[in-house]
Amino acid sequence: MRRVEFCLCTAAIVAAVALQPEAVSAGGHDYADALRKSLLFFEGQRSGKLPDTQRVTWRGDSALHDGDQIGIDLVGGYYDAGDNVKYAFPMAFSTTLLAWGVVEFGGEMGRSLYRAREAVRWGSDFLLKATADPGKVHVQVGNPYADHDCWERPEDMDTDRTVYTVDSQGPGSEVSGETAAALAAGSMVFSGADPAYASQLIQRSMAVFDFADRNRGSYNDSLGRWVCPFYCDFNGYQDELLWAAAWIHRATGKVYYWDYLMGNIHLIDFPFMVGEFGWDSKHAGIHVLIFPEIVAGGSSNGDLLGRADEFVCTMLPESPTVQVRYSAGGLLFKAGGSNMQHATSLSFLLAVHARQLMRLNRAVRCGGEAVAPSRLVELAKSQVDYILGDNPLRMSYMVGYGDKYPQRIHHRGSSLPSALTHPGHIGCKEGTPYYLSASPNPNLLVGAIVGGPDMLDWYEDFRQNPAQSEPTTYINAPMVGLLAFLSVAPNR
């Protein structure tokens, strides 16, 4: 899985700041502080009219007319990464993972629970707007080619804000299915805190699922170059439909969605996809999410009983069926850009499954060997600790955490002077000198986790290398639940 960000004006390349590997540093981490910072990052990614409670004060209101050209309010939501396009596919996945973190680990979030709910609501509010037109889902705002040709603050954005839509004539079951999942997961977050809002979310979720299922097809075909190669769906839309059904069933208990899931889950049960989970692939996530109900079903679910365990065995370095690689410094590594998305999302699943196993008094078996839930926690913790500084470079890959972290992240708002210090408009190409500069970013995007080092544990603090230096919402979203879990019981 990959995300494509175009680089600008590379004729005048500046020298990269290469960070030299050193011995690995060990030590404890303040997971509660990292949790607070991770949630702060989402405030830095907000689009739309910012609330009075906004804590990232170098950001301002942006994209206040999104949707005007088609007569619908599409203001709000999140910018996915360091650009100014709103892509509903990764935004919905990020919202789903934020919500799952609250559902599973909200009890461990303490004072951060309120902020976590805020982060979920900012995403789900936009998804409600994007699905307000019956029979349509608005899946993207902004021309990605025009946007990627500029280095411009969101507050100054003057590129084309075209709205891209799927409907019965041009379907997009993957993005619609993920949107339905996000709305259903969000309904669980607010079931006690705001029942009326929760009801609105789940009712819309079911309507969007029905639309996605009745009008099957990929938005790759419907929207073509406007979504590919940026957030192309590489493995089909069946997993998103099943993912949505699983979440709606969990939120409502309605038998229809469980029957739908059981009647179609064989369509995604390819062994080589067991260890995949991210904005493009929900395979492992589905099996972990439904694991308790599969266990409760006993022998009637015999073919599915081992799927979540198979996922675990593809992650464990000592397993005979391991499918991922680990760097010498211990970082989980998969092919494609922005590797930290794999380290955080797969580790989140390990933590969720470990908790399930502990509750059910079960272990995993890999190659005939029993694996205790504590081993899953240990592996997930090792990935979080690597991100926070226990790595060969002795640096944190979360901006603002620790003493040493990336200074030149690939992020427009962070790298350009804020309106507080430069109130004048900075045009499309006027931002290029800031992009090419070797200077640290003037605005600290606290909590942002970058794409991370390569397989050799090597990282360049270099704005023009987005695969390593760009933060994304779907890297951070699973970290919220992970950090909450570890903040209370890091060795459980």
UniProtKB/TrEMBL annotation:
One GO biological process this protein is involved in is: cellulose catabolic process
Active site per UniProt: 410
Keywords, alphabetical? Carbohydrate metabolism, Cellulose degradation, Glycosidase, Hydrolase, Polysaccharide degradation, Signal
Q: Which portions of this protein are annotated as coiled-coil regions?
A: none
Is Hydrolase among this UniProt entry's keywords? yes
* Enzyme Commission no: 3.2.1.4
Q: Which is one Pfam family of this protein?
A: Glyco_hydro_9
Q: Which range is the signal sequence, renumbered to this chain?
A: 1-26
Q: What's the name of the protein?
A: Endoglucanase
For the keyword Membrane, the answer is no
What species was this sequence derived from? Spirodela intermedia
Give the Glycoside hydrolase family domain ranges: 31-483
Its UniProt entry gives the catalysed reaction(s) as: Endohydrolysis of (1->4)-beta-D-glucosidic linkages in cellulose, lichenin and cereal beta-D-glucans
Q: Which family does it belong to?
A: Belongs to the glycosyl hydrolase 9 (cellulase E) family.
What does the record give under GO molecular function? cellulase activity
Task: Spell out the SUPFAM superfamilies in the cross-references.
Answer: Six-hairpin glycosidases (SSF48208)
